[in-house]
Amino acid sequence: MVLNHIGVHVRHFDASRVFYDAVLATLGGRRLLESPTQVGYGTNTPDFWLYPLNGADEGVEVHIAFTAPDRATVRAFHDAALAAGAEVLHAPRIWPEYHPNYFGAFVRDPDGNNVEAVCHEPE
């Protein structure tokens, strides 16, 4: 089991982008993908993500993505999560906004964290 990427929700999105721009540059990282609701950092592909919190009372959610060797494993992850009572955030599908072969499924764990299985290989 390999960690694919992690996302962190931050209360001070602008300040956090400035901070991570500076500290990750020392490690060879940089902004690779950006929108008003997310920033993806990495060296070749984004593997560390920042997301802004939208409300003062909103809890801090962590996003964890695990690498799946194939799309069947992503589907099995989704089915196991459903059987365990997880809330489905996104059923297995292609996410072309990330790249043409990004196939992922997203669920909430019992504490409300966003947990994903992702395969980057074609069918």
What share of residues is helical?
10-25%
What is the top-level CATH class? Alpha Beta
Largest sheet: 8 strands, mixed
- Rg, please? 15 Å
Oligomer: single chain
Q: Uncertain regions: pLDDT < 50 for 5+ in a row?
A: none
CATH topology: 2,3-Dihydroxybiphenyl 1,2-Dioxygenase, domain 1
Distance between the termini: 20 Å
Strand order of the largest sheet: 2-3-4-1-5-8-7-6
Provide mean pLDDT, rounded: 89
Which structural class best describes the helix and strand composition?
A: alpha+beta
CATH H-level homologous superfamily name:
2,3-Dihydroxybiphenyl 1,2-Dioxygenase, domain 1
Query: Count of DSSP E strands?
Result: 8
Strand content: 35-45%
The CATH architecture is Roll
Question: Total domains, how many?
Answer: 1
How many helices? The count is 2
Keywords: Dioxygenase, Oxidoreductase
InterPro entries: Glyas_Bleomycin-R_OHBP_Dase, Glyas_Fos-R_dOase_dom, VOC_core
GO molecular function: dioxygenase activity
Protein name: Glyoxalase/bleomycin resistance protein/dioxygenase
Walk me through what this model shows.
The protein is an alpha+beta fold and 123 residues long. The protein has one domain: 2,3-Dihydroxybiphenyl 1,2-Dioxygenase, domain 1 (Roll), CATH 3.10.180. It contains two helices and eight strands; from the N terminus they run βαββββαβββ. β2 and β3 (38-42) form a beta hairpin.
